[in-house]
Amino acid sequence: METSQLPKLTKILIVEDEPAQMQLTRQALESHGTFNLTTAQNAQEAFQQLQTSVPDLILMDLGLPDCDGLDVCRRLRDEERTRWVPVIILTGRSTVVDKITGLEVGADDYLTKPFDPGELVARVRAVLRRKQSLGPVTDYDHNGFKISADRRQVWLKGVAVAMTPKEFDLLLMMVSKHGAVITREEIGQVIWGKSAEESARTLDTHIWRLRSKLGEFADCVETVGKNGYRFNG
C-alpha cells in the first residue's frame, strides 16, 4: 500500500529520552513526509501534551526517566481520551516475556532496539492501516452485552470486561460486519498485517481468549467451518 493511502499529516507522538534515538526515529519518519511529529522526553511531558492534543499513534520507549513505559501504556488504556490510540513500543528489552507483557498491557506492536528505520516505518503504516480497516464504528447493546466502539470498552450485564487491544479489535471487526462471515485471511491481514498461515496460531489463541472473557455470550463468536468466524449476537 502506498503512503498516499494513509491520512495526510498523521499525528505521531514520540516518547523517548535518548536524544540520539529520538533523532533516528524522527529521521526515519520525516523521510516519508506524511507525518506530523511531536516529541516528549518523559512520561510527564507526554501526558501534558495529551491533555491538549491526542495523536493518531504513539511511539513509546519503556526506559523513561520518570516512569516505566509499561505503566504509561496502562494509563493510556485506562483514560478515555487515549484508550483508542495505537501504541508501538520501541525498546531495548528483547525477551519474550517483555514482549508478551508489553502487548498484554495495551501496546499494538513491539519493536526491539536497535531497529532498522525501514522496519519502523513499515510497522507504523501497518498499525495505521489496521486502525483504518476495522470497518465502520459500531456500538452494540443487546441482552446485557454492550460494546462501545468509541470508548473501546465491553460490558457483560453491567460489568466491564478487560480486553487487550487486539482482542477488542477482533471483536469490533466481527460486530461491524453485522453477522457476515469474516475469513481467517481477512482477519490476519487487518488485525495483524499477516497472512492467514502466519497468523494462524495467534488467531486461534485470541479467539479462545475472547470467548473465555465473554462468558455466557461466548457463543456469539461463531466458527464457520474452517474458513472464518462471524458475530452471531
- How much strand content do the residues show? 15-25%
> What's the pLDDT, averaged over the residues?
85
Question: Major β-sheet, in short?
Answer: 5 strands, parallel
Distance between the termini: 34 Å
> Which parts are unreliable, with pLDDT below 50 for 5 consecutive residues or more?
1-7
- How do the SSEs run, as a string of H and E? EHEHEHEHEHEEEEHEHHEE
Number of helices: 8
**Helical content, roughly?**
40-55%
Number of strands: 12
Rg calculated over all Cα atoms: 18 Å
Strand order of the largest sheet: 2-1-3-4-5
- The assigned structural class equals alpha/beta
The shape is globular
List keywords for this structure.
single chain; about 230 residues; alpha/beta; five-stranded parallel sheet; four-stranded antiparallel sheet; about 20% strand; globular; disordered N terminus
